[in-house]
Design brief:
Helices cover 82% and strands 0% of the residues. By secondary structure, it is an all-alpha fold. Helix 2 packs across helix 10 and helix 9 packs antiparallel against helix 10 (186-215). The protein is flat and about 70 Å long. The mean pLDDT is 90.
Length: 217
């Protein structure tokens, strides 16, 4: 027996969490892209020190649970540095650092997939290395790995629900608050689940449109 009538007044409150969830996702993806691009450049560069640093960074953030990373930044960082972060800032920082590790591997694979002849041709024209990477290699690499980048965004969208454990007022947190208030758990969580599902469908649909446009000569 469902009781959606009992939670109907609280549904707008839950839906407001969609905007918060999107903020976590979009800001973190932007941060992850910047960090991931830098790490990818370190991995394909000639400096062994930077290669080791990037490899070690990626190993740590891919080899530990995201929930542990969130707890370390929100609870342990203030103890070590005296710097107190809000749940929103802690979530953004954690998700950006974590996403950067995964995106770096995606971009590294994309860079490796670009025809080496283009790089050699650009070098023969005395084009600076940074311009070759910025204007020739990275745009093609990003286009080649677009499906993988979309998967990372979708994963980040769903993983952002973890911020609810430190008090972030995202979609999941609001659904849990309504559930505790009404003593009804299925209905609020179902509303949240439908919202996540619609968001994922929207992201994948937009990605397919973008992929088709990029594939058009």
């Amino acid at each position: 027996m469902f009781h959606f009538d009992l939670i109907a007044p609280s549904i707008p409150f839950i839906l407001e969490g969609v905007l918060v969830t999107l903020q976590y996702t979009l800001i973190s993806v932007c941060g992850g892209l910047v960090l991931g691009a830098l790490l990818a450049l370190c991995k394909v560069g000639k400096s062994l020190t930077l290669q080791w640093f990037a490899a070690g960074y990626t190993s740590i953030f891919r080899g530990t649970p995201l929930l542990l990373q969130l707890g370390m930044i929100y609870y342990a960082l203030p103890t070590l540095t005296g710097l107190t972060l809000s749940p929103f800032m802690a979530g953004i920082l954690t998700f950006s650092l974590n996403s950067g590790a995964y995106i770096s591997e995606i971009l590294k694979a994309g860079i490796a997939g670009v025809d080496k002849g283009q790089r050699e041709a650009a070098l023969s024209l005395n084009i600076p290395q940074y311009k070759i990477m910025r204007d020739i290699i990275l745009p093609q690499a990003t286009r080649n790995v677009l499906p993988s980048l979309v998967n990372e965004i979708v994963d980040l969208l769903k993983e952002s629900a973890l911020v609810s454990v430190i008090g972030g007022t995202d979609l999941m947190r609001r659904a849990n608050l309504v559930a505790a208030e009404k003593y009804l758990y299925f209905e609020p969580l179902l509303v949240a689940g439908c919202c996540y599902y619609i968001l994922v469908l929207a992201l994948t649909s937009l990605a397919k449109v973008l992929e088709r446009k990029l594939a058009t000569p």
